[in-house]
């Protein structure tokens, strides 16, 4: 467990590294949301084409993928998007300037906790 002054020491001794990691974290914003493409599956389903496939294991896996797995992924994506909005608003200065403002151990610990939560 890190002591009271360890967070500030870590940041001050590794400022360029910590700041660059924070920049990378904010630069990946475009890759957060998952949008499945399901038009072909929906066409096959509505046209009853899936019943023509002989491999029922693959057909069952496709149905599970599109009917339950993707729904869960979309829900998880929405949660991550909400958390991302919270983080971006809270750290708008850091996002805009690409410079992590660390004033004390508590602030650095809070930033790390927020990123971990996201």
Give structural notes.
- The protein folds into two domains: 1-26 and 97-118, no CATH class; 36-90, no CATH class.
- The chain is built from six helices and no strands.
- It has helices at residues 6-13, 15-27, 39-46, 56-90, 92-97, 105-117.
- The chain starts with 5 loop residues before the first helix and ends with a helix.
Order of helices and strands: HHHHHH
What is the share of helical residues?
over 70%
Spans of at least 5 consecutive residues whose pLDDT stays below 50 are none
Structural class label: mainly alpha
What portion of residues belong to β-strands? under 5%
So what's the overall shape?
elongated
Discrete helix count: 6
In angstroms, what is the radius of gyration? 22 Å
The count of strands amounts to 0
Kindly report the average pLDDT value: 79
Q: Summarize the biggest pleated sheet.
A: none
Task: Please indicate the count of domains.
Answer: 2
End-to-end Cα distance, whole Å, is 21 Å
